[in-house]
Amino acid sequence: MSELPQVDGVTHHWVRVRGVELHYAEAGSGEDVVLCLHGWPQHWYEWRHLMPALADRYRVIAPDLRGFGWSEAPEDGYEKEDLASDVLALLDELGLERVKLVGHDWGGWIGFLLCLREPERFERYLSLNILPPWTSIRSMAPHLWRFWYQWLISSPGVGYQLHRSGKFVPKVLVGGSVRREAWDEATIHAFSDTFTEPARARAAVQMYRVFNLREAPAIGRGRYAKARLQVPTKLLFGTGDAALDHHILTGSERQADEMTIEKVDGCGHFIVDEMPDLVAERARDFFTA
User: Distance (Å, rounded) from C-alpha 228 to C-alpha 84?
Assistant: First the structure.
């Protein structure tokens, strides 16, 4: 295993849920909890700036999803509804009935699934650079070319070798950002080195393969077409995201009781890394509203 990066005030814990040992980082204390869910190709360390920024007011918990970071990487269980079940089981194990939620990328998608499935568990949801699951195929169609990287990752043998090489993830992180100065060599290695391990390389491939082969067709058939979001939500979205075009978001609010979208110019997909102070400010304001 790669060495855990250190953040002042952050402690590390492991707990077994649904047959998988999950790692989570924790900062702050108290009964008011903020749960942070990372995306690909990252892990808990994505929240290295946000955790200390919120720890004076909240207990902040940032788990590694199964297959990522320092959590166990089994061969299966990478459908996003399964990963959502992992998160709910983690909350149960920690005795947390209701939390505030932050999610980015796949963690943001899983965050939406959690809020749709058990809205009573989530007080407010700050979503970062991800589309809601009820986004229509019609609105997505002109932008499908942007997902070339998903097909590359899903390809037999190719995605696995790309992750294991240690050269692919750095290109994704830097190439997916507008503010490339956000990335120093140590931070890039903190993310990329974990994926050179065989089990985690396979897990990254599975995230995309099961989505494209099983989940996406179901979504196309209307799996979430009639979903209604009850949890008050703020969607913060860097407009320089090369994979997810911000124009697709138009009209997303119609399927939510209370949802606002704020678009951030001069920022790419990795908004937490590129503009950590802005994300922290928006989180504090939204969670105390």
Answer: 17
Helices (H), strands (E): how many in the chain? 12, 8
pLDDT tens track, the chain, 289 positions: 788 999 999 999 999 999 999 999 999 999 999 999 999 999 999 999 999 999 999 999 999 999 999 999 999 999 999 999 999 999 999 999 999 999 999 999 999 999 999 999 999 999 999 999 998 777 777 777 788 899 899 999 999 999 999 999 999 999 999 999 999 999 999 999 999 999 999 999 999 999 999 999 999 899 999 999 999 999 999 999 999 999 999 999 999 999 999 999 999 999 999 999 999 999 999 999 8
Instruction: Say how far apart CA 140 and CA 224 lie, in whole Å.
Output: 15
User: Could you tell me what percentage of the chain is helix, strand and coil, using 3-state DSSP and rounding each to the nearest 5?
Assistant: 45, 20, 35
CA 249 to the chain's CA centroid: 18
Question: Does this model's pTM top 0.85?
Answer: yes
| CA quadruple 133, 138, 144, 150: dihedral, nearest 10 | 30
Tokens read off for 15? 């707990």
